[in-house]
Design goal:
429 residues; Aspartate Aminotransferase, domain 1; Aspartate Aminotransferase, domain 2; 2 domains; four-stranded mixed beta sheet; 15 helices; 39% helix; globular
């Protein structure tokens, strides 16, 4: 048992008796975080940092899987939630916060004319697919990116155990920045697609008019275009990636940073399509839960009044420049690259002759955690990150990248692992 992570490992052993994988979230479990060199339970957080149950402090660049945009315990959000808590949380009738937050979303998001709230991104994307199928009378769906755990999507991935074959047969992946791959689906199943859903921005930016081509093809096919903006919403632009790139979908889904860590997601879209919600069943007891809506209202007000997104972009650009400089300094483009938007970017580990990408990533996490930086490979910024925090991250990177490059070239990286390496189980993107 690790001395540094003794309490974490004891709690994990206890949790595994009652909770599959010891966590409610796949990406926070022992499948994604190497056992023996990692924290598994958090005690508290503030700003850009959290403290694990062993008392170790971390500068956090995961930010609760990108759902914390302003930083932990943001004062404006906390005050809004405390005020609403005094009036109640969930009621026997709707609360006016539902329409107030919906009105803000309609004002900010290009495609939004009406709104339906839910709790997780999966809720919203599944609602979008049901609306699309009901509106078009068709059943097939084309997917590109990660869209949640429901059967209609996850059946198209390697994590498809338990999904009926009949459901899997209706979902068809296509390749980002490859419009031809989508056209081939339309040609193979003419007039059969209800929806095309994609993340408009993930590890790569759209190239050669990709989103415009998709928009045109989807319209010509008679399907609905859905942008999954669960992460990009209120991170890359106030109106999401659709505003950033000037391509308007028919429906869009939002979540993650909409409420700075409070559970809330939204399906938005043009009234013609959203009115179908009155005919299908997309309803939940907690869709109008007011603490999350109060948090969302405070978040959206802050995003409009303060340079939150501009700050994320500027600090992210400095970070990306620093990472690329270090990759060049240590001559390691064969081991590592970086991609994504400045506010939400990724380190991409590569297989090398002496080590696998998973061994390299495990070593990276092992060493970053020792240095008090929590990252699982993503560089997810919050408004609480300062220039000094970016410097701290780059200093840690310089040490770890240098060691990684040296060990990989010498064929000694495996001998420096203090745990079993991570193994590929499920790649969402």
């Amino acid at each position: 048992m690790s001395i540094r992570y003794k309490c974490s490992e004891e709690l994990l052993e206890r949790a595994l008796r009652t909770i599959p994988l010891g966590s409610q979230t796949f990406s926070k479990s022992k499948t994604q975080i190497p056992y023996g060199v990692s924290p598994f339970f958090v005690e508290h957080a503030d700003g850009a940092k959290f403290w694990d149950v062993d008392g170790n402090e971390y500068l956090d660049f995961t930010n609760a899987l990108a759902c914390v945009t302003l930083g932990y315990r943001d004062l404006d959000v906390d005050n809004a939630v405390r005020t609403q808590m005094e009036n109640g949380v969930t009621f026997s009738l709707p609360h006016q916060l539902e329409m107030e937050v919906a009105e803000v979303l309609v004002d900010l998001i290009p495609c939004a004319e009406k709104v339906r709230f839910a709790k997780n991104g999966t809720d919203a994307t599944s609602g979008a697919i049901r609306v699309s199928r009901a509106y078009t009378g068709r059943e097939r769906v084309a997917v590109c990116g990660y869209h949640g755990w429901q059967d209609w999507y996850i059946g198209s991935t390697t994590r498809d155990l338990g999904v009926p074959k009949a459901v899997k047969a209706l979902t068809h992946p296509f390749t980002y920045n490859n419009a031809v791959s989508l056209k081939q689906l339309f040609d193979t199943y003419p007039g059969e697609f209800a929806a095309v859903i994609l993340e408009p921005l993930s590890g790569a930016f759209p190239e050669n008019g990709f989103l415009d081509k998709v928009r045109t093809m989807v319209s010509e096919h008679g399907a609905l275009l859905v942008f999954d903006e669960t992460v990009t919403g209120f991170r890359v632009s106030l109106g999401g990636a659709q505003e950033l790139f000037g391509v308007t979908p028919d429906l869009a889904t939002f979540g993650k940073g909409i409420a700075n860590g409070y559970p809330l997601s939204a399906l938005v879209g043009k009234a013609e399509y959203m009115d179908v919600v009155e005919k299908i069943f997309f309803s939940g007891t907690f869709g109008g839960e007011t603490l999350s809506l109060a948090a969302a209202k405070a978040v959206l007000n802050k995003l409009r009044k303060e340079p939150v997104l501009q700050t994320l972009k500027a600090r992210g650009e400095r970070l990306l420049a620093g990472v690329n400089q270090l990759i060049a300094e240590f001559a390691m483009p064969d081991l590592l690259s970086v991609c994504g938007h400045p506010s939400w970017s990724f380190l991409v580990f590569k297989d090398a002759p002496s080590c696998t990408s998973w061994e390299a990533k495990t070593y990276f996490m092992q060493e970053m955690f020792k240095r008090g930086v929590f990252t699982i490979g993503a560089q997810t910024l919050s408004y609480a990150h300062t220039d000094a925090h970016i410097t701290q991250l780059l200093v840690a990177y310089k040490e770890v990248f240098g060691q990684l490059a040296q060990l990989a070239r010498a064929g000694e990286l495996q001998s420096k692992l203090e745990c079993e390496p991570l193994v590929p189980l499920f790649r969402p993107r």
